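QA checklist item 7 of 12: single-chain prediction sanity check.
[x] sequence parsed
[x] length recorded as 635
[x] structure emitted
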Amino acid sequence: DGHATKERAALVADGPVPALGTRWRAVARAQPLADDGFGDWLRQHHATVLLSGEQRVQIAAAGWLARSTETVRARVRAAAVRHAQDRRAGLLVGLVTGDTRLLDADDRAAMERTGTTHLTAVSGANVAIVAAAALALGRVLRLRPAAQRVVTATSIGWFAVLTRLEPSVLRAAGLAGVVLVIATRGTPRDTRHALAVVALVLLAIDPWLARSIGLVLSVAAALGIVTLAPRIRQRLRWVPRHVATVIAVTVGAQIAVTPVLLSAFETVAVASIPANLIAVPAAMGASVLAFVASAIAVVHPPTGGLVFAAAQWPAEVVLATARGFASVDAVVAVDDPAALLFAAGAIIWLLSPPGHRAARGGTLLVVIGVAWLVTLRIAGGLPPPELTVTAIDVGQGSAVLIESPQVRLLVDAGADASAARWLRRHGRDRIDALIVTHGHADHAGGAAAVIDRVDVAGVWLHPFEQASERTAALRAAAKATGVAVIGVAAGTSGTVGDLTIEVVHPPPGRPMRGSAREINDMSLVVRMTDTHGRRVLVTGDVEVNGQRLLLARRHAQLAADVLVVPHHGAATTDGDFFAAVGGCVAIITVGADNDHGHPRPDTLAVLETQGYAVLRTDLDGTVATTIPAGCRRSP
């Protein structure tokens, strides 16, 4: 309304990204940030609005500092790709500048799964290399100690700008600055106090950094190296000194960041420790060579490219390690008490003096955790005595396991690998069919992980989704593993073991074409019936239009004992649909505190009025039910 304001905004721009340091005037639309993952990510970066549809004109060029860093970054990228293989060059550039744009997508995913992405998050090791180089230059030039510290501090500050002031490099640069200041005073150095001062100063300058997971992880890792690594090193007295130091630093950092990772992401990959033990020394070697190559490339890119070519071999060790350990499924998860017990016991044992009572207690916890994990797998692999429905807690999404004495089916797989991990952890190593109701991420996003990690006999999918980009990852995983993808629609039925499976919706073709809710209303609706006549109806996200079509054409095929409520209990269900099912148990697959307000109170009220017992994954976690005795059915 013509009032001036100063806020941080996210700009969605077509074409090249404006260079750092340039100033622009733009005419744009401001809109609220979305209530989704991208909106949350923008909020973490302190954006208040999203700008789009802009007309922009550059009004000022970048200053010398920004221009110098842009020049260096461009020369480093050019030199890295001159002789090194592209995927290795992408890692080398990331190790030096934190610029991961050249990093291969598969390598990036493998590093994320193995907890090695911190290697490209420029931090302490990189700052230490810069500081050492600056100090060495000062000594070669025979500068006085005070001048050496000024050169070192200036070099570190410029490097922080070069790497775009990421939280980890701010922490490391700040810590180096504090150490330099302490050195001028001649007082004893205490890294713990210096780390605390840096964290407090950064938060005082920018309180929003408290919401930065990068800074929290960086400080936690540094704290683990400072406080935990020495105790772990004592535990490893029988290991050669240098090897023990690498192990202690890696494990100490991992222990310190584990509570943060569990809080933020709910899982920690067990493979991250062995992967880091191999990758970290290789990354250090690659980093030193890459820094030398970068310094040379600033002056003469062809010569720098030759050094980058030598650095690609330790870089390949990092990438091969990440890819090799990426297939290891074991994780410690907040919803897995057995794994948590095992991890807690191992940590207590590592941090306790040999022979101490605490060490013996840690060993006992490890034994109990292992026994618990083995029992879960053995018991979970056994077939149930009767028809059982298990709604796996995958957050805001759906994954429903239907098991009989002879058959195991999975309907939908959530948004990520949570369902696949649950299946493996509980001994469900084979699935007779994976039925994907529709292509939305919260139902189909985890399907590829299930196909990769579990023996799946076949995938059922509506032809509408078979060529969809939404299910591309699913189809690629099925093709890679030789799993058949079968197109099904209303009228498809068959008997698998002791279960009869009927697809009751949608009809062939696209009867909902043009509808804004077509994807949901085209969800597969599937009924499973065992040899005793007990029935389960799973409905995907089918909404009112699809339900009314069902009521008109397939009313008799809706009767079931257990209903998986459509669309996570949203206010998109006709009360007549619940009545037509006429079951006694309603399962709502829904995430706790989700942004959509699911399940809706009016939907819950209708279910209660019609006599359903409601089970919810947001309140109860993973829930399992059999068909209660005397469960009523529709006529």
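[x] summary fact logged: The chain has a mean pLDDT of 87.
[ ] second reviewer sign-off
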